[in-house]
Amino acid sequence: MPIPNIVLHVADVHKSFGGLHALSDVDLQVQEGTTHAIIGPNGAGKSTLLNVCIGRLAPDTGAVVFDGQVITGKLPHEINQMGVVRVFQTPEIFSDLSLLQNVMVPAFAKRDGSFRLNAIRPVSSETGIRDEALHWLDDVGLADQRDAIAASLSRGDKRRLELAMGLVQKPRLLLLDEPTAGMSRHDTNSTIELLKKIKGRGMTKVIIEHDMHVVFSLADRITVLAQGRIIADGPPDEVRGNPKVQEAYLGGVH
C-alpha cells in the first residue's frame, strides 16, 4: 500500500497575541488529494491557523511545511506562487472590474509571476487567459454575468467569484475560509457539488466551515480546534461521535 504524500504539515505551531494563546502546540498533516476540514467554536483559532499557513502571520515557534519545503518566513505572494491559494472569509475582489476581468487578473499573475502590464500587447488579445477565466466562471455558475461589475453581485455570488479567482490559478493546495458563508441553501448545495467535482481532479483542499452539512458532505478528514488546541482529528464518523467535540459545541455536532 503506497504511503500517502503529506502536502501540508503544520509542525508544532504556537501563536500568541499578548496573553492570548491563539494556537498551542498545533500539529496538523494534510494528505495530498484530500479534503480536510478544520472546525471549532468561534475563537478556536481556525482563521489564525490559515493566516500562519499563508504567511500573513508568523508563528512564535514551529513551522509550516508545504510539499516538503519550509514556507515559514516566506512572503504571502511567494507562498501563492508555490501553489497555495486562499479564498477569504470576506470576499477579496476587484469591485470596479467585471467578473471576467476579476478572474483574468490572478490568471495573469500565476502565468507571469510579478504582475506587469505590457502596453504593446492588449488584454483583449490574451484569448487563452480569457477562455480559461470563462471556463471557471461557467463552473461556478457566473458565466452569464461575465460583463457585470463585481460590486453589483450579491454576497453569495461574490463568494463564488472569489472561488473562480482561486481556481483559475490551478493551486496544488486550496484553503477555503467559510466558502459558503452568505449563500442560500441552493447556492450552498451548488458549491458543494462544485467542490466535489474539483476533488475528482486531485486538488487538495483545506476548508474552515461552520455549516456541518458542508463539512460532512465534503471532508475526508476533520480536525477540531478548541481554544487554540487540537482536541480531535480523524475521519468524519469518528469525529462526529467524539465526546470532546460534542462538549466543545455545547450539545454536539449535528
Would you give an account of this structure?
The protein is an alpha/beta fold. It folds into two domains: 1-83 and 171-254, Rossmann fold; 95-170, no CATH class. The protein has helices at 46-53, 76-81, 99-112, 127-139, 155-167, 185-199, 212-218, 236-240, 243-248, and strands at residues 6-17, 20-31, 35-39, 61-66, 69-70, 84-87, 173-177, 204-208, 221-226, 229-234. The chain has a six-stranded mixed β-sheet, sandwiched between helices. A hairpin with a 2-residue loop joins strand 9 (221-226) and strand 10 (229-234). Helix 3 (99-112) crosses helix 4 (127-139), helix 3 (99-112) runs parallel beside helix 5 (155-167) and helix 4 (127-139) packs across helix 5. The mean pLDDT is 86.
The low-pLDDT segments are none
CATH superfamily of the largest domain: P-loop containing nucleotide triphosphate hydrolases
- Provide the number of structural domains: 2
**Named CATH topology of the largest domain:** Rossmann fold
Q: Can you list the strand order of the major beta sheet?
A: 6-7-8-3-9-10
Radius of gyration based on Cα positions: 19 Å
The helix content, as a percent range, equals 25-40%
- The CA-CA distance between the termini, in Å, is 34 Å
The CATH architecture assignment of the largest domain turns out to be 3-Layer(aba) Sandwich
- Give the integer mean of the pLDDT values: 86
Strand content: 15-25%
Quickly name the level 1 CATH class of the largest domain. Alpha Beta
Indicate the structural class. alpha/beta
Main sheet properties: 6 strands, mixed
What sequence of helices (H) and strands (E) makes up the elements? EEEHEEHEHHHEHEHEEHH
